[in-house]
Amino acid sequence: MSTRTSQNRSPEDAPRVTTRTLQDMKASGINIAMLTAYDYTSARILDAAGVDVILVGDSASNVMAGHETTLPITLDQMVYHAQCVVRGVHRALVVVDLPFGSYQGNTKEALSSAVRVMKESGAHAVKVEGGRSIVPTVERILEAGIPVMGHLGLTPQSIYRFGSYQVRARDEVEAEELREDAVRLEQAGVFGIVLEKIPADLAADVTASISVPTIGIGAGGQCDGQVLVTHDALGLTTDFNPRFVRRYAQLDQQIGEHVQQYIADVRSGDFPSPDESY
Q1: List 120, 139, 177, 196, catalytic entry
Q2: Residues 6 or more apart whose Cβ sits within 8 Å of residue 202
Q3: Are strands 225-228 and 32-36 parallel, antiparallel or unpaired?
Q4: CA 179/CA 164 separation, integer angstroms
Q5: I want to staple 204 with a disulfide (CB 3.0 to 4.6 A). Which of 22, 68, 211, 222 is the partner?
Q6: 196 an active-site residue?
Q7: pTM of the full predicted structure?
Q8: pLDDT tens-digit map of 107-137
């Protein structure tokens, strides 16, 4: 089934995307489009454009707060960003990352974190990183009726354990572990799995072997959908240049040029004009 809005129908009238919608899209061979958002204005724009899933990613730690990694962002901060995003969304499925330290301790803590996100923000699902070690956590959260998305491959919250942002699962041992983890997450009940920075052939194998949708980022074109950080895709941030990022705009340059024009207009007295004054 197609979830795209028609030219004659506003996003408010379009069918809301649910976890079932994504399952139907996989079955129908319709690729899922997913982007990140962290505020009301950008979420409203993405939703109106027809994005299927909006991820309130812990990448807010990088692109919004300027941290080197995703680790510093707190649960309170993620709840705040999620609240802002949800207010701007009428159609897309809103998924929120549980941040580092909010679910790894034990399943009780993980459930408490997930409940806070859902109750305080109005989001539709949460996302957690990891494989077999977090299966009990996934099951505990799902028992409370909260949809969970998984995340395998390069998991940024574990960057200090990995030691680099290089492609994961190149060797067969790690590749087989990832295949098994994907199956375990599916059996635990996740509604989808993000596959980050793994070989395209492996991502294709995983996608074909499980019934839930896969969302790729640096994992080739055979996943059931794709996700990018919006700031990267639109050129708002340009210091991060992995090969999987396609720049659809250079907004940093365009915004800079417009701001310079504004400054020039203020300096010259051209702004405000009589028509722009009361």
Answers
A1: 196
A2: 169, 175, 178, 179, 219
A3: parallel
A4: 22
A5: 222
A6: yes
A7: 0.93
A8: 999 999 999 999 999 999 999 999 999 999 9
Structure token pair of residue 71:
């680790």
* DSSP β-bridge partners for residue 130: 151
Give me the architecture of the 19-247 domain, per CATH.
Alpha-Beta Barrel (3.20)
Instruction: Convert the chain into a string of H (helix), E (strand) and C (coil).
Output: CCCCCCCCCCCCCCCCCCHHHHHHHHHHCCCEEEEECCCHHHHHHHHHHCCCEEEECCCHHHHCCCCCCCCCCCHHHHHHHHHHHHHCCCCCEEEEECCCCCCCCCHHHHHHHHHHHHHHHCCCEEECCECHHHHHHHHHHHHCCCCEEEEEECCHHHHHHHCCCCCCCCCHHHHHHHHHHHHHHHHHCCCEEEEECCCHHHHHHHHHHCCCCEEEECCCCCCCEEEECHHHHCCCCCCCCCCCCCCCCCHHHHHHHHHHHHHHHHHHCCCCCHHHCC
Give the number of other CB atoms < 10 A from CB of residue 32: 24
Q: Residue 177, Cβ neighbours under 10 Å: how many? A: 15
Distance CA 210, CA 104 (A): 25
In the chain, domain spans: 19-247, 250-278
